[in-house]
Amino acid sequence: MEAIVRALTPRPNRAVPAGLRATVQLATGTGKSFVGAVAAQRLAPRGVVMVVVPTLDLLTQMHASWVEAGRAGEALAVCSLVQDELPEGMPGTTHPLVIGSWIDRATASGRPLTLYSTYAAAGSVEDAYAAWRERAGRELVPLDLMVCDEAHRSSGSAEKAWTVVHDQEAIPAARRLYMTATPRVWQPPKRRRRDEEEGQEVGQDDGQVIEQDGGQEVGRGRRGVWQPLPEELAVSMDDQAVYGPQVYTLGLAEAIDRGLLAPFEVVVLELRDPETDTEAAAAQPVPWGAGAGEAEDGSEDQVPVKRVAAMQAGLLKVAAEHGLQRTITFHPRTLEARYFAETLNQTAERLSGEDPDEFPEEVWSQWLSGEHPADYRRYILGDFGRTEEDDGLAYRVLANCRVLGEGVDMPGADSILLQGRGSMVDIVQAIGRALRMKPGEGKVARIVVPVFLRAGEPPGDIMESDSYGPLVKVLTAIRSHDARLVEALAVPQRSGRRTTGARAELAGAPGEGEGGEEWSGAFVLPVRFQSKVSQTALALFVATQVFRSESVYWKEGMEHCRKWVEAHGSLDVPYNAMVGANGNFPLGKWLSDRRHERASGDMPAYRVVLLDSLGMIWSVSDARFEAGLAWARQWAAEHHGSLAAPARASIGGYAIGTWLVELRAQAEVPAGESGALPEARRRALEAIDPWWAPSWPITWQRSYAAARAWWLACDGVVDWPGLPVDTSFEGEAIGRWVRAQRGAWASLAEEQRELLLALGIEEDPELAAEVAAKAAKATRPVRARADRFAQHLQALQRFAEREGHVRVPRQHKEPLEVPAMAAEGAEEAGAEDGAVEVVLLGLGAWLSNQRSRRAKLTFEQLVALGRAGVEWAAEVAPVRRETEDTGVQA
């Protein structure tokens, strides 16, 4: 009330030409009528108030509620009801001048006046203002307040007559208060993208959203076309220019937590479809009688009698299991409602004969439709509210077809049967029938949803079967009522309360869930199946079926993820993994696409939670690093804390050596550059072995680790100078290695020396001198290949001059004077020290090698050989010239 009064109280010196407007969303059954009446008393206790409702039944009920809430003064019904059908003392009319005179007289006298109107008759009030302007020559005073109950009825197309309640010029009002449980939001149409048609990820399912209840679609256009309702003609409840701001919201979950509505659960009846699974359906113990109104030959029977009988048996079993007392069933046609009620006792009698202790012989069963007179409906509803003490019948079932509509008061029911038909608003209002309760009643309501499985469909296979459409429709309607309830279902719970919750959870009383887990009292919607359905499967079903934006491609991917986790224990899926019955679903690529989608910020938060519930690996690199790190710890534990593993090393089938080689290569890349090892990974490896990636060869570190292990095995007492050269430990020749380090001390890095000194290994001066002498007599620098070619060519020319041909024997060696350095492939001839030395060149072998590698010789080299008398070189040279000119490889 504070929010309403604050929103609809005029501000000083602030004109509002269209009048003040505000919207209140209250869960169905939480008392919108009472709130509207109190708001009128606060805002216009002595003014003219107009209350607009969708039905005639609700009009008379609204009058009684407002009078009970304290609304005084005169009341006028603007509707088609005759006087005998109206409450005593409230006249009715649709004549414009009569309505105008009532408004004018009330404003002149200062007495309160309440106009009770249906949306269909609201045009009569518009006519009253127009007629008064024309006949009396003056304007009627604007209404002090207009209360639009079930305000979603005034949304949709601006061209329909009911939207007159929004028009300030047609019906001027200082304030408008819109009240609803299911706000309808219009969304502009979208064309289907090409990838939708190809089964790729989409943002909207088949058809175009025309209008939505609480964000859920209630209508759709044809596939691939524009929705015909243009934006300028759409009346949407999120348009504050029409409905004002939503100043207060009481969701379904909050209303249940506060004890205003009954906690409830969804019970899924998994039945066999008699039309597609005749054999299995015949096994269902469900009798049926003649259809209501059918001919003897059955030619006029349009009631699916076998389906109805199966629903009857299922409902009676649920009633017996949960101790239900009153159930309302909702049917799309009057004939089906009548048949359900008139044959229900045949099913009860059959079940009672099979199990008299479980099922009663007779139940109270009646039906209602809009064709019944108001007096008869009131009589049946009164009889429905009786108890076993009144007539001996413990269980009562009322079948109805479009008669127990919005806001109509009736005796409380503890359960309803919904077939998932009708609009979202119809389903929400039907659910409200079961959730209403008296203060302190403490009941638990059941929403019974029958599904018919086709031949070959196992019960509980909710991800693969299309037969669970009625459950999708009901959960979608609940989501439109309070999205939090269904969004919570999309996240699996380890406690399993959602499918097997205890009664204390439903009743809203603190207690313990399964496994002794303490329950906080916040309402969690259980969905119960007759078959076994896992928490993960239910979460996937809700996320992919109830959230209408999910595509078939997404649903299929999530189902394959679930199966992969069951089979492999994690979602570490290779990129090229193909799964499915035919092996045609690219699960690895699908997961990779999801990672990119999240990284770009395009993935909704609930999808992230859903994938996380399956153990999604968002970074394959991180996951594989962690796996490798675990193996690295084990390797180090088995190798004296060292990660100096050989490149081909493996442990437990894991290629630890290759993994470390790759990381060492990354560690050599400067920080900040592409391909560099992240600092966090470097620290993690250094925590295992600080010298896992040394600047010196890893073979040195591996030998050091073996020497250190030897040292530890000897309790730190080792005579390194006296260690035999042939000593080996764990496959490493540590004796030879230690001697090499003591002799090459000067060439070691400072860190290497520190590591050796820590083991007691020191430099050996005599050995170091020996090593230095050998280093002084180092191998002479190798000549360049071009120089060697020139030397051998020169030797060939000398051979040709001496022998008169170039047929050099394979083993022939030609002496040649060259500058004083060793030539590759030459044998030194003992020349004295000086600037020139004589070498023996293997000319025969060289010439043979040139012929075998002639494809790699340059044109100039071939020409030189040809001039020296080599015939094959002279033949190849012209071809090489041509190929080099054209750029074609020979």
Automatic annotation (TrEMBL):
Residue stretches making up the Helicase ATP-binding domain: 13-201
Gene3D superfamilies reported for this sequence: 6.10.140.530, P-loop containing nucleotide triphosphate hydrolases
Superkingdom to which the source organism belongs: Bacteria
Pfam annotation, one family: ResIII
Signal sequence interval, chain numbering: none
Keywords carried by this UniProt record: ATP-binding, Helicase, Hydrolase, Nucleotide-binding
Keyword Hydrolase part of the UniProt annotation: yes
Mitochondrion found in the keyword field: no
Region (Disordered): 182-223, 497-517
CDD domains xref list: SF2_C
Low complexity composition-biased segments: 205-215
SUPFAM superfamilies (UniProt xref): P-loop containing nucleoside triphosphate hydrolases
MF term (GO), any: ATP binding
Protein name: Helicase
Lineage, opening ranks: Bacteria, Bacillati, Actinomycetota, Actinomycetes, Kitasatosporales
